Amino acid sequence: MKLTSAQMAEFVAAGVLGFEGLVPDALNRRFIDEAEQVLTPKPASITEAYRLLLPSEVLPKVSPGVSFGAAFRDGHILKEIFSLPKVAGLIDSLVGPDARFDHHFLHLTLGQGIGDPRTVRAQHNHQDSTIDPRQAFDIQLFYFPQAVTFEMGGTRYIPGSHLRVVSEAAIARYQNLLGQRQIVCPAGSIYCFHMGVWHGAGANRSADQRLLYKIRLAPNGPQVRLWNDEDLSLESDASRPIFWSDNLRQDPVAERLMRLEPWYEADTGRLELINRIKLWRYLTGSPQADIDYWMTRIENEQA
Amino acid sequence: MAQRQKILVLYLATSALDTAVIGWAQYDGLGGTSMTGDERSPPYKTGVAALEDGWRLFQASPLLPHPPGIEFQTSYLKYEFWFEQWITLPDPETVGTAGGASRRPEAEMTSS
Predict the structure, then answer these.
(1) Rounded distance between C-alpha atoms, residue B33 and residue B56, angstroms
(2) Facing residue for A165 by CB, picked from B12, B73, B79
(3) For the CA atoms of chain A, what is the radius of gyration?
(4) B94/chain A closest Cα distance in angstroms
(5) B9 at interface of A, judged by CB pairs closer than 8 A
(6) Percentage of chain A modeled with pLDDT above 90
């Protein structure tokens, strides 16, 4: 069950796709139970929790670069989750059927009243890994096996930040940005991030521990039209009038790709649109694709 | 007299101080530093509004040319303005007690 062009446009513009309640309750319960078996009796600190979790079988130890399809044995809870048609379709649409495994991790935040109070601090905003100016991109799936309330401090992220080339925690001083989001979701939700999305863990102010499974996957080939592109209309998107526009037109892909985020600087927002079009050209395999004349105008060398 | 510094960092929509705040951070030498992501709306609508409320601007981002080849690359927020306030703490020896009850000293803001 692959993504649509409208969903791909959302991913290109925001860098994030969220799917609430995608994983059935039975699988969520099994995932939580397997983790809680290791975490019983309740550890006194986050250090103690990971001393128990790391040697356990909750997550397999997998080498970076191996085929994603071979990363999990048959019957493993994660193999079952990744085999769900919507999850498999999401992955195939973005990084292809032969994706590479990068790494995975089980993030745990303890509830209030447990362990070191210093862990109650929110994590600073950051971009994962390091400076990465590629056009090709990795994805990161965030799987929340339990319902996440606002007080539990689900992942905070900055929509539309993924195309900014920065160096990991260098953005830590950006405490608040207009339009920032914090994930609040039902159990079984999966959020898919472009590798560049600025994000950070919220402070868990609840009494409950919060579990988040995160996996990074890389493409092993061009990411060109891997989704269901039946609803793609590049010619129509490129031809919509600008400024003196036609309010009767319906161009959902073009409209989404050109929608600015409230935290963009006035001039830099236009550069973001240009970078989105460049990414859209890569994904559609159409080097002349354009929207609202942004690229065609500055590529006109005829004069 | 002992003093403590408060820092306000505003990120604006353009290089003009009277344009909209799009991001912000606050660090408080009195211990009131907030956590990342905790605030939904900015403390001021523009940089000028912060000036009008007594903040002293001490640093602004320079405008830099765009290096050839990466003219369209986006990166860090471009229009960063740093403000400060200095808080003078009352001399503990001048803070007495009234009626036997202790009184928390009140800090006073001073411009520097």
Answers:
(1) 18
(2) B73
(3) 21
(4) 35
(5) yes
(6) 92
With contact defined as beta carbons under 8 Å apart, do A101 and A62 qualify? Answer: yes
Residue B81 located in a structural domain: yes
- Residue B92 pLDDT: 75
Residues 6 or more apart from A83 whose CB is under 8 A from it?
none
Residue A239's alpha-carbon distances to A61, A247, A274, A293, B111, in angstroms, are 50, 14, 16, 8, 56
Note down the domain range covering B52.
3-64+73-90
The minimum CA-CA distance between A262 and chain B, rounded to whole Å, is 7
Q: How many domains does chain B have?
A: 1
Per-residue model confidence as pLDDT tens digits over A50-68: 999 999 999 999 999 999 9
For residues A181 and A159, the answer to whether their CB atoms sit within 8 Å is yes
Is B33 part of any domain? yes
Contact A177 B9 (CB under 8 A): no
Architecture category of domain A5-218 in CATH = Sandwich (2.60)
A133-176: per-residue pLDDT in tens? Answer: 999 999 999 999 999 999 999 999 999 999 999 999 999 999 99
Pairwise CA distance, residues A22 & A86, whole Å:
8
Whether B96 is in a domain gets the answer no
Bridge partners for B20 per DSSP? B46
Taken in order A241, A247, A251, A253, the sign of the CA dihedral is positive
Q: Which helix (H) or strand (E) holds A28?
A: helix A25-38
What residue ranges do the domains of chain A occupy?
5-218, 233-299
Q: Which residues in chain B (81-110) have CB-CB distances under 8 A to chain A?
A: none
Tell me the whole-structure pTM to 2 decimals: 0.93
For the segment A201-235, what is each residue's pLDDT rounded down to a tens digit?
A: 999 999 999 999 999 999 999 999 999 999 999 99
Asked, as a colleague might, if the bond just before A41 is cis with ω within 30 of 0, I would say: yes
Q: Tokens 């344009």 label which residue? A: B19
CA distance B60 to B70: 23
Block mean pLDDT (10 aa), chain B, length 112: 95 98 96 90 98 98 96 98 96 58 46 41
pLDDT of the residue at A121: 85
Among chain B residues, the shortest Cα distance to A135 is held by: B73
**Which of A76, A46, A75 minimizes the C-alpha distance to A61?**
A76
